[in-house]
Amino acid sequence: MKIIETVAEFRQEWANLKELESLSLGLVPTMGFLHEGHISLVKKSVSQNDVTAATIFVNPTQFGENEDFEDYPRDMKSDLDFLDCEGVDIVFVPSLEEMYPEGFETSINVGSIATRLEGKYRPGHFSGVATVVCKLLSICRPDRAYFGQKDAQQCAVIMALNRDLCLGSEIVVGETIRSSDGLALSSRNSYLSDSEREKALSLSSGLFAARKLWRSGENASDRLRSVVLNEILSGNSEVPVEIDYVSVADKNTFMEIDRIEEAGNAIILVAAKIGTTRLIDNVALV
Amino acid sequence: MKIIETVAEFRQEWANLKELESLSLGLVPTMGFLHEGHISLVKKSVSQNDVTAATIFVNPTQFGENEDFEDYPRDMKSDLDFLDCEGVDIVFVPSLEEMYPEGFETSINVGSIATRLEGKYRPGHFSGVATVVCKLLSICRPDRAYFGQKDAQQCAVIMALNRDLCLGSEIVVGETIRSSDGLALSSRNSYLSDSEREKALSLSSGLFAARKLWRSGENASDRLRSVVLNEILSGNSEVPVEIDYVSVADKNTFMEIDRIEEAGNAIILVAAKIGTTRLIDNVALV
Is B7 within 8 Å of A113 when comparing Cβ atoms? Predict the structure, then answer.
């Protein structure tokens, strides 16, 4: 009888017994309406794994009551074509009933990291994310799962989930993909009118300006936040803007930082409604 | 590219690709201090699977602040001998730090079933159980996992957890194992003095008497509950007894039943402190 004390040894022992080391699986969970940000994750997975699976599921439990679950853009046919072209092997497109059968009441709370920033402005959001991602990782049991840096706090929540519940995947974070004018790609950009899209550029340009100021030696967070705020609130656009937060935060805990002592630890994040469309973006201070 | 809509199909497809159908794993999670109840689960697993793993881990997060985590009986050497003799292949004995590393904050809530009976008298208990069982099932990924009917509500909580999070195991419930005098085996029986053990017999004898009355045609829950209460509270023992609940409940939802309309759906449960030792027991109305 083998006596084992660590998670890693247990998995290795069972894998040896089963001899299942033959094929690796990469998983790219998405809510569909795919753009180049998703595709960059798919490409990464295809290059790093023997088999790539993607999921398309607009998860209702991560939307607040007054949010856009019903209106969230969907285009299954185009998504499937996209994935097929990129060499995806399996796509999992569960129904609502398959994911949330009658009697479903389970929820996962990953703790303090999920209470800050997005967690504060979207109560319940990260519990919905953690629960559905736990399900997808449990169903698919991938070697690697791929998420985008645009949703930086979501990535941290999923890393905590994966670590705490021993879900056994490597979480791979792909860089934010942007339009040539700087706007971070998001399925929700499809909601924007031309003038709103113009205004939305202030999010990324504000972040870039703050990063530039930091690179020139400014370490005080309030000065960096002001740069972003001014960029968003300046100009003569008639598009209504409502800023939820501009934050300089620790990139792991997402707690606010007053002064940036060390390169590589901090991230500037912004969330704002441009017209009726809520957008988020971030840049790392590196 | 394969397009898949259900969990079962996804798992089958990936298993086919990996050709990992070779060996089945049974898992028997325990808190150690093993008795014949645990051993009956181990025997069942050994008979139903190619490989059997057991875990020994006294999980702090399922104990309340004023409960017996520190005092919970432990005897690792004897437990390992027991398991080895029974043909267990792997035993997982993680440290506290291995299961709850620094920064661990995740918890799982399975919803309303966990708020009743044991959940009401032991707030947080089922969240601790669900979280640690999720971890163990995620780490070990067994084909079947074994739990005892003595902890009937725990079995229901774990079934909900396994179903809701798609953990992918079959949950197998083994019958309650009793001493020849009727007392349900429990590691906590080791706390009992001779006079307390004598008094503790009233739990099982009360349940048996109520089941007998039901079998003779009595369908009113309050009459059945009275039988159990009277049995526990009668007699001249000087052992102090504190009853948390006597419940006639639906065996799936654990909601109280007023009148038993159908055989096989109801269960009578009792929880009481005998001296300072809290014991639980139940019988199904079949």
Answer: no
